[in-house]
Design goal:
Layout (H helix, E strand, L loop, with lengths): L2 E2 L8 H23 L6 H12 L4 E4 L6 H11 L4 E5 L6 H5 E7 L5 E7 L6 E5 L6 H13 L1 E4 L2 E4 L5 E6 L12 H4 L4 E4 L5 H10 L14 H13 L2 E2 H13 L7 H6 E3 L3 H17 L7 H12 L4 E2 L1 H5 L4 H12 L2
Parallel strand pairs: 2-9, 2-10, 3-6, 6-9
Antiparallel strand pairs: 1-11, 4-5, 7-8, 12-13
Amino acid sequence: MGRIETSADPIDEKAVIAAAEKALADISEVKKAVSEVIFGQESVVEQTLLAVLSGGHALLVGVPGLAKTKLVTTLGAVLGLSANRIQFTPDLMPSDILGSEVMDQDENNRRSFRFLPGPVFTQLLMADEINRASPRTQSALLQAMQEYHVTVAGAAHDLPRPFHVLATQNPLEQEGTYPLPEAQLDRFLLQVDVSYPEMAAERRILLETTGGADATPRAAITMERLAEIQALIRKMPVPESVVDAILELVRAARPGHGNAKVDESVSWGPGPRAGQAMMLCTRARALYDGRLAPSVDDVRALAEPILQHRMALTFSARAEGIGIRDVIADLVATKAG
């Protein structure tokens, strides 16, 4: 099977395979450590971890009480990352996130400004109920997510690396919220839908979280090891069949590209960043599943979390009760089948 190299330098395939086999054991240990604290929700844990392993950000959408916050704090501990949490509210200001300059005075009465970093200066940032903040505050986070630095008083300040934002949204309560603009939604590698747990998992939650002590997360890998795995994922060769499947799926999701159903129901579709996200996440999913190369099945599995927040339905489609997941499912059946 033909392969596509994704950098100007030739890929040492044997070295990549050896590094991938070592990474498989580390990722397996990460999965085990997370499962000791988070019960059930396998797809949610998988997709959130895929976003982090791919070096990106994730948007977790679900009603309150589904352990979204606990998942983020657990991942911080398991992956060896420093973590901060910001509760977004309508009165939150950009300086509350980024930090601000304060005036210092020394013993000679000379005054100077000193930068006090805000909570965004961490490696894993939980942005809780991100859509409750004003557009001005949301846009302050946008630069950090895309450029990995913030600008305060004209000076740029680099963020720690790696840097990941895991944001949460409540899909039910929309009063007093500010929907995220398309430009910011596109910065999230995945949208992870957090559903209610299965019966067996919920039974375990009831029994194990209402006793004397909760399970505490343990470190499975270091921050440096995570960075190595992230770099490895970018070096993994991708079969031409997978690249073709990604291109066909992403392009078919755009109106005006020959799909009558999409033309009728989709007002705007995913841009090239969706394909980039798919290229990274299919590799990460292969490693997560213990494989050394991605397949078309990975494209099918990741279509919904990667595309759903990068598309919008027409008014007529919404009026007819068509959902964005229905459109993506049809595309997967025809383009990645």
